[in-house]
Specification:
Strand content: under 5%
Helix content: 55-70%
Shape: elongated
C-alpha cells in the first residue's frame, strides 16, 4: 500500500472510533475500557515485533517510542478501569465517615463539676 492509502485508513479509523465512542452511554464505559485494554495489549505486541525487526536507527527509535507509549496506554487503561470499577463497589468507611475524634477526658471534665464541659445537648448554669 502506498502512503496516501495508509493515511486515509488512519484518518477514517479516527473518525469512526470517535463516533462510536461518543455514542456510548456512561454505564457502558467500563466494559468499553476493558475491551480497549485488550486491543492495546495487541498493539503492544505489534510494537515489540516491529522493534525487533527494525533495520535502521530511526526506525528502531520510533518503534521503541511506540513500545513505550503502548505500555503507558495499556497500564493507564487498567488503572482507569480499576478506579471506575471501585465507584460501583461497596463503600468503604474513610476518614470523612469517621467523624471528629473524641476528646480525652481530663480530671476537670467529669459531669457535675463546675469547671468541666457539659455533655452534648446539656446547658449548665
Amino acid at each position: 500500500m502506498d502512503t496516501v492509502t495508509l493515511l486515509t485508513v488512519v484518518v477514517l479509523a479516527v473518525f469512526v472510533g470517535f463516533e462510536v465512542v461518543s455514542k456510548v452511554t456512561s454505564k457502558l464505559h467500563t466494559p468499553l475500557m476493558s475491551g480497549a485494554n485488550a486491543i492495546h495489549g495487541i498493539i503492544l505486541v505489534g510494537a515489540v515485533i516491529v522493534a525487533g525487526q527494525a533495520d535502521g536507527p530511526w526506525l528502531l527509535a520510533v518503534a521503541l517510542l511506540a513500545v513505550v507509549l503502548a505500555t503507558a496506554n495499556l497500564v493507564g487503561g487498567f488503572v482507569v478501569t480499576d478506579r471506575m470499577l471501585e465507584m460501583f463497589g461497596p463503600r468503604r468507611p474513610g476518614p470523612k465517615d469517621a467523624g471528629p475524634p473524641a476528646a480525652a477526658p481530663g480530671p476537670d471534665s467529669a459531669p457535675g463539676t463546675e469547671t468541666g464541659t457539659a455533655p452534648a445537648g446539656e446547658v449548665r448554669p
